[in-house]
Amino acid sequence: MTTTHTYDVTVEWTGNLGSGTDSYRSFSRDHEVLADGKAGIAASSDPAFRGDPARWNPEELLVASVAQCHMLWYLHLCAVGGVVVTDYEDHAHGVMAMDESGGGGQITEVVLRPEVTVADASMTEKARSLHGDVPALCFIARSVNFPITHAPVIRVQES
């Protein structure tokens, strides 16, 4: 029997400035990303595309999804593999390349740069190697068509 999971979200445009999409410059790209029982995410387009820089944009959310999925699987693998992680922070970086016509583009790579703190120095090498096991498990990484690399930094918790 196949197990499936469904995810329902609503994207609600809030950028009608009075004349709708009367022209390219007549509307805001602002919108809300909503899901039942969750706080909304204020979103827009990238500022390069007339978006609000104070709001999340789809490109950032995609990079964040890649980083979140990697982190969650990594922590799982550490927990079952005997690596005690006491701190984790990722400074993920995504690159989007525009096509020559300027009308579209695609994410061409995401680099994850997790900074991981482990409880004991004996866990350092295993903590580093487990990052390599994540791509086969992370459903986001398995669903995208661009390379995801990682450059982890492993530290030992100070006593």
Any descriptors?
GMP Synthetase, Chain A, domain 3, 3 helices, elongated, alpha/beta, 9 strands, 2 domains, 3-stranded mixed sheet, 159 residues, 3-stranded antiparallel sheet, single chain, 23% helix
In short:
With 159 residues, the chain is an alpha/beta fold. It is built from 3 helices and 9 strands, in the order βββαββββααββ. Pfam families: OsmC.
What does this 3D model show about the protein?
With 159 residues, the protein is α/β, with parallel strands linked by helices. It folds into two domains: 10-49, no CATH class; 58-156, 2-Layer Sandwich (GMP Synthetase, Chain A, domain 3). The protein contains three helices and nine strands. The chain has helices spanning 58-81, 124-130, 139-143, and strands at 10-13, 31-34, 41-43, 85-90, 93-98, 105-112, 114-118, 148-150, 153-156. The longest helix is centred in the middle third of the chain and has 24 residues, at 58-81. The model has no long low-confidence stretch (mean pLDDT 92). It comes from Streptomyces piniterrae. Pfam families: OsmC (PF02566). This is OsmC family peroxiredoxin. InterPro entries: KH_dom-like_a/b (IPR015946), OsmC/Ohr_fam (IPR003718), OsmC/Ohrsf (IPR036102), OsmC_Ohr_Peroxiredoxin (IPR052707).
